């Protein structure tokens, strides 16, 4: 009820209220879908544990489907081309804050994929676990780049005084996702001001270049 009143006030004032729409969307999901969620996650975990069985090389090579065989050949070709491609060529060490999978399966997947991809091409990358102390991770891994999401869920878990102190004696560039208010985040102006106060070095995005140039917010 209180949430709806706040939404009405924002609507009258002409303020966008994306969280209200998100709440409405989630409440519209059928209860059976929520009940099936855990079963689906368990199924996915089981597939991962048994990937050698489900994704064996012999099964792909001996498949009756020519698309499967061709796809597997293309996969091996790409892996061969990019494996350790940057090994020994750059000095960067990338620390990535990875959200707990129960909190955000999508966020967990996205940031884990970045970490694994960097390691695959030969760039040392490690994770800052969701409940790990940032000072411990900095001392353990000695990163030169730190990547995380530009949302209070991520930022609030970091002791930024530790980052500042570490930067005084070490080379470290901190990058945040270029997250727009239109995607459900808080107003951009406030976040940019906070970023200046905390010496954020850069923003990064997964959006296509032409899209970035077309959105005024990215400028």
Q: What is the percentage of strand-forming residues?
A: 5-15%
Indicate the overall shape.
Answer: globular
Mean pLDDT: 89
Structural class, please?
Answer: alpha/beta
Could you state the order of secondary-structure elements as H and E? HHHHHHEHEHEHHEHEH
Over all CA atoms, what is the radius of gyration? Answer: 21 Å
Oligomer: single chain
Number of strands: 5
Distance between the termini: 38 Å
Largest sheet: 5 strands, parallel
If strands are numbered along the chain, what order do they take across the biggest sheet?
2-1-3-4-5
Query: So how many helices?
Result: 12
- Helix fraction, binned, reads 55-70%
* Unreliable parts: none
Show the helix and strand layout.
Layout lengths: L1 H12 L4 H11 L2 H19 L1 H4 L2 H5 L4 H17 L11 E4 L7 H16 L4 E4 L5 H8 L3 E4 L3 H4 L4 H10 L3 E5 L10 H10 L4 E3 L4 H6 L5
Parallel strand pairs: 1-2, 1-3, 3-4, 4-5
Written description of the protein model:
This protein has 219 residues and is an alpha/beta fold. The chain contains twelve helices and five strands. The protein has helices at 2-13, 18-28, 31-49, 51-54, 57-61, 66-82, 105-120, 134-141, 152-155, 160-169, 188-197, 209-214; strands spanning 94-97, 125-128, 145-148, 173-177, 202-204. Strands 2-1-3-4-5 form a five-stranded parallel beta sheet, sandwiched between helices. Helix 7 links the parallel strand 1 (94-97) and strand 2 (125-128). It is globular. The model has no long low-confidence stretch (mean pLDDT 89).
């Amino acid at each position: 009820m209180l949430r709806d009143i706040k939404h009405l006030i924002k609507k009258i004032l002409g303020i966008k209220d994306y969280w209200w729409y998100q709440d409405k969307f989630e409440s519209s999901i059928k209860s059976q879908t929520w009940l099936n969620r855990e079963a689906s996650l368990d199924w996915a975990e089981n597939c991962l544990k048994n990937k050698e069985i489900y994704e064996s090389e012999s099964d792909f090579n001996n498949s009756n489907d020519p698309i499967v065989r061709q796809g597997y050949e293309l996969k091996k070709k790409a892996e061969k081309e990019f494996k350790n491609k940057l090994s020994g060529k750059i000095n960067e060490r990338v620390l990535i804050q990875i959200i707990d999978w129960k909190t955000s399966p999508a966020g967990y997947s996205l940031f884990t994929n970045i970490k694994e991809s960097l390691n695959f091409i030969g760039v040392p990358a490690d994770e800052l676990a969701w409940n790990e102390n940032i000072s411990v991770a900095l001392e353990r891994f000695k990163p030169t780049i730190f990547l995380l999401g530009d949302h209070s869920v991520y930022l609030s878990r970091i002791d930024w005084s530790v980052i500042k102190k570490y930067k005084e004696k070490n080379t470290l560039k901190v990058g945040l996702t270029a997250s727009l208010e239109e995607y459900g985040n808080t107003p951009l102006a406030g976040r940019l001001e906070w970023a200046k106060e905390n010496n954020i070095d850069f923003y990064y995005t997964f959006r296509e270049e032409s899209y970035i140039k077309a959105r005024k917010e990215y400028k």
